[in-house]
Design goal:
The protein has about 325 residues and is an alpha/beta fold. The protein has helices at about 25-35, 50-55, 100-105, 125-135, 180-190, 200-220, 225-230, 235-250, 260-270, 280-285, 290-305, 310-325, and strands at about 5-10, 15, 15-20, 40-45, 55-60, 65, 75, 85-90, 115-120, 140-150, 155-165, 195.
Length: about 325
């Protein structure tokens, strides 16, 4: 990015967007913003050649979108993207976070007023990217979205779509509702995407973990859909135990999550379309899983305040083994 942010001309000036990671999350939200008249630049990785030739397809109950090759603004190199008003980061939250290097290539001269929005799962996300973002506005977006990437540049949206937005502060303190949050929310709502504005981003991330921590992790370890985890009393008790530890971790950081939030998460899960979680999809395709962001970081955050999360710690150790085996990091042994 080497010049001032571009805007989309029209009756009203619309913000321009860059989507870093045009998969299940970035592809869906980027396509909706494009349909709403925003100029959206998509950064693809492995799918770039296919996207340039065939475009981007998003199937959705809200209406299918096909951005053909003549309409889709696709890029394979982050250095080629123009400066934009907003950068949506929708890559996986791995260790190290791949978005850090991508943003470092994008946030050059002309991006001083660019807003960066992380749409990644887990805890400690903004802290990992803040050194690269620098003095620019850094927002966090928590997506309650059932959406899968089913092929190259091909996304299937199944249900929901809410984004909860909060602003990151250097000390982690609540920042309240800010003008950049309100401006982004207006764009998203104009694209048919529901938005909730959060006073406290850290509290919102802990609240999202009420769903993410149990259902992502246990869907891998028990080879189950989220609804199946609630169908058996023993599995449901395990889900509830993880939720209770998320509440304890949040409390250790001075954030209160009411018991009603856990019950609401279970109720929403019972009624959502059958859906494999993002961690389960990564496991099944032998991709690295977001173990640290979703499980490890919350454990460490609680431990820093003297609070132990024993159930989540056991789950964390199991996931570390499963992930290591999936990634070929275990020794090859021949049984007798």
């Amino acid at each position: 990015m080497t010049s001032g942010p571009e805007t989309t001309s029209g009756p009203e000036t619309k913000q321009s967007y860059a989507v870093v990671g045009a998969g299940a999350v970035g592809g869906f939200y980027g396509a909706r913003l494009t349909e709403a008249g925003h100029r959206v630049h998509f950064l693809f990785r492995g799918d770039f050649a296919h996207a340039k030739q065939e475009g981007l397809v998003v199937e959705s109950p809200l209406g299918d979108v096909h951005l053909g090759p003549g309409e889709l603004l696709a890029y394979g190199d982050p250095r080629d993207l123009p400066p934009c008003d907003v950068v949506l980061v929708a890559t996986k939250a791995l260790v190290p976070n791949p978005a850090a290097d991508l943003l470092a290539s994008m946030l050059g001269p002309g991006t001083e007023h660019t807003t960066v929005v992380t749409l990644q799962n887990g805890l400690g996300i903004e802290e990992a990217l803040a050194p690269v973002v620098g003095s620019r506005t850094l927002l966090g977006g928590l997506c309650f979205l059932c959406s899968n990437k089913i092929g190259p540049a091909h996304v299937r949206h199944l249900d929901y779509g809410l984004i909860s937005l909060g602003q990151h502060g250097p000390t982690g303190a609540a920042q309240g509702v800010t003008p950049p949050m309100e401006q982004l929310a207006a764009d998203l709502r104009g694209a048919g995407i529901p938005v909730a504005l959060e006073d406290d981003l850290v509290a919102a991330r802990w609240k999202k973990l009420i769903w993410n921590a149990p259902f992502n992790s246990l869907s891998v370890l028990l080879d189950a859909l989220p609804q199946e985890l609630l169908a058996l009393p023993e599995a449901r008790a395990l889900v509830a135990a993880v939720m209770a530890e998320v509440q304890a971790g949040a409390a250790a950081q001075g954030r209160h999550i009411p018991d009603a939030a856990a019950q609401t998460s279970m109720d929403l899960t019972r009624h959502m379309a059958p859906y494999r979680t993002s961690m389960k999809l990564d496991h099944d395709h032998r991709r690295p899983m977001e173990v640290e962001a979703i499980i490890g970081n919350p454990i460490r955050a609680a431990a820093a305040h003297g609070v132990d999360l024993p159930v989540m710690t056991t789950i964390y150790r199991q996931l570390c083994f499963v992930d290591a085996r999936n990634q070929g990091r275990l020794p090859t042994l021949d049984p007798a």
